[in-house]
Amino acid sequence: MESEDHVLAMTIISTSLLIIHQLMKTRRRPRRWWRTELYKRREGRELLTDMNFQHISGQYKNFTKMTPTDFENLLEMIGPRISRNHTNLRAPISIQDRLAITLRFLGSGDSYTSLQYTFRVSKQSISAIVPEVCAAIMEELKEYIKVPTTAEAWLKISKEFEDRWNFPHCSGALDGKHVTLEAPIKSGTEFYNYKQNFSIVLFALVDADYNFLFVDVGCQGRISDGGVFKDTTLYDMIENHTINLPSPRPLPDRNISIPYFFVGDSAFALSENLMKPYGGTHPKGSSKRTFNYRLSRARRIVENVFGIISSVFRVLRKPMLLQPDNAELVVMAIVLLHNYLKRHSRNVFITPGLVDQEEEGILTR
Q1: pLDDT 10s digits, 105-144
Q2: Mind giving me the DSSP string for 348-363?
Q3: Residue 261 carries which DSSP code?
Q4: Is there a contact between 337 and 141 (Cβ–Cβ < 8 Å)?
Q5: What is the mean pLDDT of the chain?
Q6: Any idea of the CA torsion for 159, 160, 162, 166, to the nearest 10 degrees?
Q7: Helix crossing, 68-82 with 95-108: angle to 10°?
Q8: Quick one: average pLDDT of 251-260?
Q9: Which one, of 182, 68, 286, lies nearest residue 278 by Cα?
Q10: What does the pLDDT read at residue 51?
Q11: What mean pLDDT comes out for the span 214-238?
Q12: Burial class, 192, CB count within 10 angstroms (exposed 0-12 / middle 13-18 / buried 19+)
């Protein structure tokens, strides 16, 4: 009997100790601060207001990469998606600050730690704000990138390539760009590319006027441009003949019908609707060398577009300390903002030094 009482007592003691231990483990350490003094005064909105008063100086555009009018228009579109409700504890970060933080991150590539001192918002909050705002931009501006669906629309693009770059029947230039990442967590060599860094691929089709027509973002950097292309819906549309390119027609002053096509570099496979340069070297004045020169004039437009977005949105110039999913959101937001700003503020967004120009038959950059 005494033995049973002893066992029962030990069981009760053990259970009590276990409960106490669990309570001590789950007890949260009290906060030292709800907010530090640094974050109690947010000045992002006031900073933009001050810059707006001196908009002639270009400070506002340099800071946000857009005019005050474009900023307000974009804010009106995405505001409902990024707003937060007031609570009894504290006021939320304003939608103006949320958008300004994101645009400054895209435009400068500054770290979250650096941005927290500019906007007086903690880096933990910024790490949540940037993907959220980029996702809102994607949703609201998605109509700014569209693959043409009619033969007439493709003919218009082809006419622009012929008039501006002297390459008829070209319906677009395509290529891939590696967006460098810091080594993603537990990714192994999945994103490791031939340049010996980690990246995701931005694959794009552009028209003769530096607009994105189609983009695919997020493929692992270890995959070649040709492999990325074959995994896109654009490739499926071309192969299945559902892209509605115009019917083959003769070139000017010729009789043989030639199909309409896209242009790419040697990484892509030659096909009926995809043209690439002749391989090897060719003597000066030969027809093959002339053809390669003309094709390169048209194809380099896509490289110019990559140069434009890297020049304006400098987050693309350095390795992103983001996981691939968030990096994909950032890149998609950038390409949509490119088309948005080019449509609404072309003369402000694209300066003459960013694009190719032809003077008296000589191509300059």
Answers
A1: 999 999 999 999 888 888 999 999 999 999 999 999 999 9
A2: HHS-GGGS-EEETTEE
A3: E
A4: yes
A5: 85
A6: 170
A7: 120
A8: 88
A9: 286
A10: 66
A11: 93
A12: middle
Length of the chain, in residues: 365
Q: How far apart are alpha carbons 341 and 328 in whole angstroms?
A: 20
Q: Which amino acid is at 251?
A: L
Rounded to whole angstroms, the Cα distance separating 203 from 254 reads 34
| Rounded distance between C-alpha atoms, residue 232 and residue 218, angstroms | 11
Strands 198-206 and 249-250: unpaired
* DSSP string for residues in 105-130: HHHH---HHHHHHHHT--HHHHHHHH
CA dist 25 and 20 (Å) reads 9
pLDDT score of 298 more than 90? yes
CA distance 123 to 110: 12
| Amino acid letter for position 321 | L
**Confidence (pLDDT) at 364:** 56
The dihedral built from the CA positions of residue 110, 114, 120 and 122, taken in this order, carries a sign that is: positive
As a whole number of angstroms, the distance between CA 333 and CA 336 comes to 5
